[in-house]
Amino acid sequence: VGNSCVLLCPPEPNKTMVAWKISLSAGTNCSFSYRADRKTSKSNCSDNISWKSRPHLDPTIEIQQVGLADEGNYTCEVATADGNFYTRYHLTVLVPPRLLLHCDDRGNPVCEAVAGKPAAQISWVPESNSTKEEIHGKGTVTVLSKVRACSSHLTNVTCVVLHPAGNQSKTIAC
């Protein structure tokens, strides 16, 4: 989320046509095309998706500021005298969770990995295990974990959040 994504298409010589067909997970479709007479068209695509440079030189597209709405299937077709060549991508957008760590009213540490996609994994140092998940729209998930019955000799605990978009940790004393 928020980064730029570049999708390559085969740089076939003597291409007569390049077409990107995009089927987004939200159910909408859009397309880009280029013909050898240098005619280009764009249909139903958001402004953040465009040719990376000039399509007659490079049929690569770029998605600026990737968002969840950009998830889906992207297919590039290049037509030449030798035939048609296809490249397919499935774009999955990762959303890093926001890490929240606090003490509940009983003095137990509570760790939350808020609105990540996919769901994060939470672990504790020292070890503990009480977690629950809350699923939000667009596939984001909040994971909540508590340390129960902290020992009186335990002064600090560390919440470790593991996620494909990056790992995080915070320490708290309750």
UniProtKB/TrEMBL annotation:
GO BP term, pick one: regulation of neuroinflammatory response
GO molecular function: signaling receptor activity
UniProt-listed SUPFAM superfamilies: Immunoglobulin
Annotated localization: Membrane
Ig-like domain sequence ranges: 1-92
Superkingdom of this protein's organism: Eukaryota
Topology of this chain in the membrane: Single-pass membrane protein
InterPro entries: CD200R, Ig-like_dom, Ig-like_dom_sf, Ig-like_fold, Ig_V-set
Keyword Transmembrane helix applies: yes
GO cellular component: external side of plasma membrane
Predominant subcellular localization, coarse grouping: membrane
Swiss-Prot/TrEMBL keywords: Disulfide bond, Glycoprotein, Membrane, Transmembrane, Transmembrane helix
Family statement: Belongs to the CD200R family.
Protein name: MOR1B protein
